[in-house]
What does this fold into?
Amino acid sequence: MATHHSHYDPENSTTHYTVLPDQPESAGAGRRKSLKVVSGILLSSFFLLSLVFVILNQSSDLSQENSRSSETLTPALSRGVSQGVSEKTFKDVSGRSLSYYPWTNAMLTWQRTAYHFQPQKNWMNGPLYHKGWYHLFYQYNPDSAVWGNITWGHAISTDLIHWLYLPFAMVPDQWYDINGVWTGSATILPDGQIMMLYTGDTNDYVQVQNLAYPANLSDPLLIDWVKYQDNPVMVPPPGIGVKDFRDPTTAWTGPQNGQWLLTIGSKIGKTGIALVYDTSNFTNFKLLDGVLHAVPGTGMWECVDFYPVSTVEANGLDTSYNGPGIKHVLKASLDDDKHDYYAIGTYDPVKNKWTPDNPELDVGIGLRLDYGKYYASKTFYDPKEQRRILWGWIGETDSEAADLLKGWASVQSIPRTLLYDKETRTHVLQWPVKEIESLRIGDPLVKQVNLQPGSIELVHVDSAAQLDVEASFEVDKAALAGTIEADVGFNCSTSGGAAKRGILGPFGVVVIADQTLSELTPVYFYIAKGTGGRAETYFCADETRSSEAPGVAKQVYGSSVPVLDGEQHSMRLLVDHSIVESFAQGGRTVITSRIYPTKAINGAARLFVFNNATGASVTASLKIWSLKSADIRSFPLDQL
It folds into this structure.
């Protein structure tokens, strides 16, 4: 496969780009400014000057919906909040629904992912491994592509990539879960029994914890589930709001013989807390004194997760492990800002306390699992491969009207192995499960490119919408050492995106771009230097030019990422149509992006590598695989 080097030559270039302004112009401008060539400004010419509305021929089945003005803003219905869970309707910063855009069938069809798990239709949690099958239980609305009527969908896989849909595991049909079968977790006992604890929303909108278990433990598919006759097994304790008590974790063994412990997220005022219960039989529970941990100012903790990580071994641990060479990760999904935060610390089971190693990196104020669109994550221990696997829910960032048109919303992230980062001792490392490599088609495209300041190269690939990209970047050492101070106080979200040029960045990969680069999503590094000359690297994903449609979110995501002595700047990108999962430095920092292009779809999607720094050359080393689609379908009914 050949590549085309498009280091911009204003006299001889055959590809015409436009200069990116400091602030995007209104989409109603209806035109682009003419190209103004300025010596030394090279890469910034590949970004779009203004968002131009494109009038598209609509298919007949969308004509009625698309008769509305693309400028119209309609009030956004709130979903979930009245029942005490986080807002499920995506809204812009003004609190209104995003403006409507006349999507075509081709655009909407392209958005559906090829190898991420998602239901066949509509809105899309306790994973486990049992008798040769991975089981995924997920919250699902069988009636619509919006949140509501939450039922437990059920799918199985032998490799975490190819999935078979099974009949629903549980439906909201009892007084204690009639308004929703919500998040739950599985605990596998030493004798093989499976205890599934889940949150139910009662007929009075009270959050309670319920028990379910397989009807036939010898069934490898776990088709039928039984709800315990005396549910609920836990109700909100005194001092806890009836809508602030949800999402039980997998249980772990306590210090007393036969004792099991678990934690549930809640809040007191604005303080996020993790309550701890003990049990010996999973039908009778006692609330222990105090809390596992609390962080003032973080608000309601949802989907709390708590698990051990080895500081010496390169494998995962069962949830009950503790002792020398072990740290514990505490993670909470913050209802207030819809992000997943974690911290590493020490667990004392006797005192029932977890203490962060670094209070400045405590839960909710420190590190996030993912700096993009990612929430309500959950891990489980995989005994087959002796690893801990992380799942996350990836919501939509387009309008609810668009979701209803395409008939589905939300997907699961690619499963990620999770390990303790022995080098930083502050981070965990997340990496796509090795099974994703089975989707790679043939040999990779391998290429090394020297990128001068302000250069970009088009890389020809078979399908830019389904890729596994590994890229490393070596920054010119003289330029790096010679730069004394640059971009003090840099922040991905407020930086202005990849068009903002600095001495030592940005440089990286552009995914899902069209040929003229009117739509594009750069994923990149940016090196800043403080007054002391210490370099700090940032890893960012810029969605501000990802789509010409006005009714989608367009943000710059990212955070700092430790790059240690001797390490090159490295990233891995999993591109799957409307989702891009980006991993920096072996998974120390991760960003998930949702993008909804109108032009860069199907055969028009392109891949680029770039260096928009003003004072440093960069050598990029690329290894790129095209990926085939996963086989995700219904289990043959005649075999059930």
